[in-house]
Amino acid sequence: MTSNPPLERLETKLAAARTRLILEKPFLGALVMHLPLKASDQKWCKTTATDARALYYNPAYIARLSLEQTQFVLAHEAMHCALSHFNRRGHRLRHRWDVACDYAVNMILDEERMHPPDQALMNATYRGLTAEEIYPLLHEDPPEETQDTHLFDGDGSEGSEGDPQNQDEGEDRGQPNGDTKEEEEGEGQGAPPPPSDPDKLDEQWKSRLAAAAQAARQAGKLSQSMQRLVDELLSPQLPWRALLARYMMNAARDDYSFQRPSRREGECFMPRLHSQGVRVVVALDTSGSVTREELQAFLSEIDALKAQVRAEVTLHACDDKLDPAGPWRYALWEAMTLPEEISGGGGTDFRPVFEWLEREQPAPDLLLWFTDAQGRFPEREPQCPTVWLVKGKTPTPFGVRIQLN
Questions:
Q1: Residues 38, 149: contact at Cβ < 8 Å?
Q2: Do the Cβ atoms of 284 and 350 come closer than 8 Å?
């Protein structure tokens, strides 16, 4: 029987792998930092494992990996957590779901040009697909084995209640291996119990995902494929109508006024809530990808919100150029309807609308775009606050994006 290598040497190797991730791929490195590393018993941890609270590893397995492969397995576990695979299985068969999750994660890391271990599940057919999309493509009882152990449901996890992992659930501990006697003694114990509050962990990992993406973006080290993935994961989950109402309400400039009152109101200056209403520009993508029925439904929603926020709305349409019949202006009391004749059918270019807005006086408080987002954007972010209601999954380079589904 081969003895395990000295734990200190493995800790140095793991720390070096994490440091390289932070320097080379700060998005993945930041996610890995949220998982304390714990040496575990090879009886239940054949390679690596995670329960979304810590990362467990078999010392003998880590010893066999190259430094690049070690980076891969660390990022693999962190991505399971960031993608909330522990909270998305639902009614699906566990083994089939675990295999789907491994394919989804590994193809993401392959896009990042990382080096997988020999047993990693890789299949170019599944590139760009989520675990939910991969699952029905697999055999009902897949012959594949995952490269790690997923401790999300507790199946087969007869862990001891005294495992240190059962303490301080969900707490961030940033030391590479905890550097505590308690964690070193984790080796030889059973697998930890499954998370008791997966919804809470889900929210924690969403926050960590957003923070990691923001830091990597500022450092200029967030790839386009990872950016798209993050945008999809962090898409607002509220109905688009509720989100639209929230942004229009926020744009309404209700504030306290100290304007001089009438003489009949006395000499005392008291603050009064004063509403100036809101000036909104609505831009419609008429390139042909959005149907007239969809445009009308969108305008009906704007019309319903218009009275609530005291909005004056200016409507314009654009494909690759502005509609010559526009713009159409609607006062507070006027109902909004889609013009009978509206041009379109060309390509999609968002720049003419922003160029027109630069000439508009006064500038609007909010610009609402209804589009599939597949077109040419301005090279620099305009000053006007912009909300995109997007049909489809195309990202937007600036502004607030609301998924229309």
A1: no
A2: no
In the numeric block, the tokens 């012959």 are attached to 143
- Listed residue (143, 149, 135) closest to 76, CA to CA: 149
How do 311-318 and 386-391 pair as beta strands?
A: unpaired
Q: What is the largest CA-CA distance in the chain?
A: 97
Please report, as a single letter, which amino acid is at residue 275.
S
Strand order in the sheet with 366-371: 328-330, 311-318, 278-285, 366-371, 386-391, 400-404
Is the bond into 143 cis (omega within 30 degrees of 0)? no
Residue 98's contacts (CB-CB under 8 Å, 6 or more residues apart) are: 146, 150
Pairing of strands 311-318, 328-330: antiparallel
Strand 254-257 vs strand 272-275: parallel, antiparallel, or unpaired?
antiparallel
Q: Identify which of 345, 279, 275 has the alpha carbon closest to the alpha carbon of residue 317.
A: 345
Task: Give me the half-sphere count of Cα atoms (radius 13 Å) on the Cβ side of residue 392.
Answer: 11
Domains of the chain from N-terminus onward: 7-232 (no CATH), 240-258+272-404 (3.40.50)
Could you identify the residue written with the tokens 């303490």?
A: 167
Q: What is the pLDDT of residue 213?
A: 87
Query: Please, which residues have CB within 8 angstroms of residue 68's CB and are 6 or more apart in sequence?
Result: 114, 115
Q: Which residue has the higher pLDDT, 180 or 325?
A: 325
156, 46 Cβ separation under 8 angstroms = no
- What is the gyration radius of the CA atoms in the chain, in angstroms? 27
pLDDT of res. 211 = 87
Whole-number Å distance between alpha carbons of 397 and 378: 9
Of 186 and 401, the structure prediction assigns the larger pLDDT to 401
Of the candidates 53, 15, 20, which has an alpha carbon nearest to the alpha carbon of residue 36? 53
